[in-house]
Amino acid sequence: MTVSLPNTLSLEEFLKMPETKPASEYIRGEIVPKPMPKGKHSRLQLKLCNHINDRAERANIAYAFPELRCSFGTRSIVPDIAVFEWSRIPFEGDGEVPNDFGLPPDWTIEILSPEQSSNRVIGNILYCLQQGSQLGWLVDPADRSVLILRSQHEPELFQGKDAPPVLLGIDLSLSVDTIFGWLKMSER
Questions:
Q1: Residues facing residue 88 across a β-bridge
Q2: Residue 67, C-beta contacts closer than 8 angstroms, at least 6 positions apart
Q3: β-strands 107-111, 135-140: how paired?
Q4: Which residue of 11, 44, 53, 181 is surrounded by the most CB atoms within 10 Å?
Q5: Cα dihedral 172→177→182→188 (10° resolution)
Q6: In the predicted model, what is the mean pLDDT of the chain?
Q7: In degrees rounded to 5, what are phi and psi of residue 81?
């Protein structure tokens, strides 16, 4: 579902509007509500964020933010996970993380929900890549795959024991099977 806006609504005006739950994105002059995350989506999002941050935060390599609004170029999007290299996080003068991120993430991760349009989500990943992101993942729980998008590369589909690429410097050693294995919580 999209909400068409008058031609005069700018990105700046959209950003002054109150936040919604779930979040809405501003894409090509339209407000596009994101679907409410469900169980599989939430589990994968949390586990991926924690896994990335466990390996990248302490060494100041990168940080994975869940549901972070990123406003840059002509869009304001809320990737499921936005990973920023440490040197690109726009820390405030006191060292705190800011509320507003006016730049694309280095690595954007989207987890496809059943009611989402894969092309709309891929469109956001491609836009991030055009604006300077290094890497995009589209995680599809329905077919247990991860589609990898990178600037100047053909898309690649990873499944099973394949280990999808991550940002340089982050040692994840993570296979697609491992990612989707996190959905089973009762087998401990």
A1: none
A2: 23, 45, 78, 79, 80
A3: parallel
A4: 44
A5: -110
A6: 92
A7: -140, 125
How confident is residue 7, by pLDDT bands cut at 50, 70 and 90?
low
Integer Cα distance of 179 and 146 in angstroms: 10
Statement: residue 32 has pLDDT above 90? no
Q: Higher model confidence: residue 163 or residue 1?
A: 163
If you search the block for the tokens 């979040």, which residue do you land on? 23
Please give the average per-residue pLDDT across 17-24, as a whole number. 86
Identity of residue 146: V
Residue 142, pLDDT > 90, answer yes
The whole-angstrom separation of Cα 105 and Cα 85 is 8
> What local confidence, expressed as pLDDT, does residue 5 receive?
44
- Determine the Cα–Cα distance for residues 127 and 34; give it in Å rounded to an integer: 17
Structural contact between residues 141 and 121, judged by C-beta atoms closer than 8 angstroms:
no
Task: Please choose, from the candidates 5, 24, 48, the residue with its C-alpha nearest in 3D space to the C-alpha of residue 164.
Answer: 48
Nearest to 164 by CA among 151, 150, 147: 147
Contact between residue 60 and residue 16 where contact means Cβ atoms under 8 Å apart: no
Domain annotation for the chain: domains and CATH numbers: 36-181 (3.90.1570.10)
Q: In this model, does residue 15 exceed pLDDT 90? A: no
Radius of gyration of the chain (CA): 16
